[in-house]
Each structure stands twice: as C-alpha cells, then as structure tokens.
Amino acid sequence: GNREETFDQLKRLGIPVYLADPITVGDVLHLVSELGQLTGHRDRAAAVEKDLERRIAVVRERVAGRPHPRVLYVLWPEPLIVPGKGSLVSELIALAGGASVTADQGQGYPRMSLEAVVGRAPEIIVLARHGSRVGPAAREQWQRLESLPAIKSGRLYMADGDLMHRYGPRLVVGLESLARMIHPELFARPEVPK
C-alpha cells in the first residue's frame, strides 16, 4: 500500500526496508518466520509459527467432512466490497468450513451489486466491522432482505475486520471466529472469567 517514492526516500536516508506482500495464510506464516530471522528472534518466531499452524489444523480437523454453507462476507457495505478469487478472506472462509459465495469473482476484493449477492442466496452473512464505521445501519440493511436463507435462519453476524484483513498472527483468531459463526455446533465459546 505504500508508494515507491517512500521506499526511495528511505533508501536515500540509509534506512533498511523489508518489503512484505503476504496474500495467503501460508504467506503470513512465512512472514512470521522472516520477521523472526530479521529481528534476531528466530526461536520465538518459530514457536509462534508452530502454534498458529496447530490452531489452523484444529479448525481444519473439526470442519472436515462437514457441509460447507454458502457464506457472504461483506468487507465494505457501500460500495459493496467482497472477497474474490485469491483473497485471504476467501481462504479463511474455506478453512473455516464455509463456501464463499463471491470467491469466483474478480481477483482480490471486487465490488458487487446487492442484487448479485442476493441472487447467490447466502446461508450466512458476515459483516466486517471497521471501528465504529459499520454498525446497526449496515445490519438493518441486510435484515430487511427477509427472503435470504441467512436472514430467515438468524445467521447474520458482525466480525472484527482487523482480525480477517490484517496479514499478521491475529488472522488465526479471525479464522477461529469465522469457524464459530459457520459451524457453531463444533466450536464451544470460551468461558469469560468473572
């Protein structure tokens, strides 16, 4: 997301730059390893990477052999932006045991019309929150579409977009959250200490 001029200026100032461009879950795990090596914390990074891999495997094992409900994930409500081909969010939905209804669309995060996504009859709708910018109004917009399977069954959820869209170790928390939304019967919610 940075401009080339920024890197040129940092280079002129003699400031070392590491360029990271992760796209997949595997890329994120590799990035953890790379950053550990660059910062002299290879062993700690290896432990983090191993824990993330273990948690991903737990989700994969639990959803294996289960039906894959149709999931609509809304990154942004207006214009309607969704995860498409090759996007991290489409991969997370698949790992969590769902089938993204928009994974066949343009590369990355394309725009779609409301009519197009409604025509795909999602069984689950997940609205990404970005701070306070996506709240009750966005939820109400979808709740009005009472003919959608997701609305009929009460499967309209809000999710923390920072957990799904940021290419760092917390994306596994996002994966676990998605898995609970898609297959709540398989994932007990952790107890909150009183």
Task: Please describe what this structure looks like.
With 194 residues, this protein is α/β, with parallel strands linked by helices. Helix content is 45%, strand content 9%. The chain contains nine helices and four strands. It has helices at residues 4-12, 25-38, 42-63, 88-95, 114-118, 136-143, 149-152, 161-165, 171-182, and strands at 70-74, 99-100, 124-129, 156-160. Strands 2-1-3-4 form a four-stranded parallel sheet, sandwiched between helices. The model has no long low-confidence stretch (mean pLDDT 89).
Strand and helix layout:
Blueprint: H1 4-12, H2 25-38, H3 42-63, E1 70-74, H4 88-95, E2 99-100, H5 114-118, E3 124-129, H6 136-143, H7 149-152, E4 156-160, H8 161-165, H9 171-182
Helix pairs in contact: 2-3, 3-9
Q: Please outline the major beta sheet.
A: 4 strands, parallel
- Report the total helices: 9
What gap, in angstroms, lies between the N and C termini? 42 Å
Low-confidence stretches: none
Strand order of the largest sheet: 2-1-3-4
N-to-C order of helices and strands: HHHEHEHEHHEHH
The secondary-structure class comes to: alpha/beta
Proportion of residues in extended strands: 5-15%
Number of distinct beta strands: 4
The rough form would be described as: globular
Residue-averaged pLDDT: 89
